[in-house]
Amino acid sequence: MLAAGCAHAPPPPHAAIGGEPRPYRGLPSYLQHPPRDPNIDREPAAGVNEREPVVGHRALPSGERLARLHALLAAVDAHAYTIADRVGTADVRALELTLDEIAALLAPYPDLEYEVDELRALTEQIPSTPAPRLPRVRARMAELTDLIRLQLVAGA
Q: In the chain, count of helices (H) and strands (E)?
């Protein structure tokens, strides 16, 4: 009985790998003919750059950008509070340079453009502002920097 159990017929010959006459049926039907993307042949609209963000739709700045903005806003506050009765041109120039950098970082945020423009206007008026009015100018500059901070946080 053992001799008959061990004796079996050789396996039938198989076709060479890749030479099978019938198609491979291991793929699902949706992968055998993938759907065609309808946007492949679409022409872009004239004058529209699809790589530019849509106005009003923006992401919060990256961590480094946000940290830099907060540091620059703190510098504007410090410059505004150090302005004494006699304003030096170096103080005003430092404030202008700081505002230029803030404006460059806030370029993707058109809704914050007004606050930066008002800060620039106040900075230009500082040398000609009478001493009794300087505290109001400083207070307004602090209000504007706080507004920018709030709008950055609200955009999160």
A: 6, 0
